[in-house]
Amino acid sequence: MIKAYIKNGIIRVVSGKKSTEYPTGAAAVSLGGKWDFENPYAYFADYNEDELSKLAASELAKLIAINDFGMESLAEFDNSRKNKVYFGKNFSISYELADTVVPCFTLTSAKELFALEILTAAMNKKPLKICENCGGYFFPSGRTDSVYCDRITDNGYSCKKIGAHRQYRRNSRANDLKKLYDKVTKHNRYLKSKGAMSAYEYNNWMNDASKKYADFKAENITSAEFEAWLLGKETPAPRTRSRNTISDYLL
Ligand SMILES: [Zn+2]
User: Fold this and answer.
1) Distance 141 CA to ligand 1 centre (A)
2) Whole-prediction pTM value?
3) pLDDT (tens digit per residue) in 6-21
4) Whole-angstrom Cα distance, residue 106 to residue 24?
C-alpha cells in the first residue's frame, strides 16, 4: 500500500520501508528528467517511465498555458475533456497521526500521484513556471514570483543560487554603467560650458543618451552596446559566451 502524507506543501510518499519527501509538484516536473530526490513514482507497480513521462510532458505543456493556475481554472480545463486526469477520481483519504494530524491519501497508481501533486499545487496556489536558468518546469517552493527552480545543476549549485548570483552581477554592472553615464554627461556639460560643444549638440546628445539608457534598462540593448555607445566606440562583436566555471558562481 502506498500512502502520501501532505503537510505544509510537502508530500511524503511511503511504500513499506521506503519513503521520499519533496515540495508539492516537484516529482511531477521531474518525470522524464533528472531526479534530485528518490523518485516516488517508481514505488508503483504500474509505473512505466516512458508512458508517465509522456503524459507529464503533455499535461505540463497544457498547464503552463493556463494564465491563472488554480483549482477553478484547472477544473475548467479538466472538465472540458473526456479523459479527466485530475477531477472525479476517488482518492482514498484518511487522517493520520504523524507528529500532528495530517491528511493521508492511499494511492493505487502512479497516475494518481501525478494528479494529486498537480491538484495540491493548485490548491496551494503555486503556479506552474519555466525556470529562467535550466528551462525546466517547476512549482515555486517559496515565493510565487520566483523565476528559478531548486534543481541542482551539473555545477552542483541550484538554479536559484545561480540566478541570485547572476542578478547580483547584473546589478553591479548596471551600477557601473550608470556611473559611466553620469560621468560622460558631466564631461559633456563641461565641454558645453567651455564652448567646445554647442547647446544644440549637447541637447541632442542628452536626448540620445536618455533613450539609450532607457533601452539598456529595458534590455533592448546589451550592457556592452550601451557602454560602447557612451564611450563613442564601435559596438563590439558579440562574444560567444564561455561556459560558466564554478568560481563564477561564488559570490
Ligand atoms: Zn532551473
Assistant:
1) 12
2) 0.72
3) 998 899 999 999 999 9
4) 16
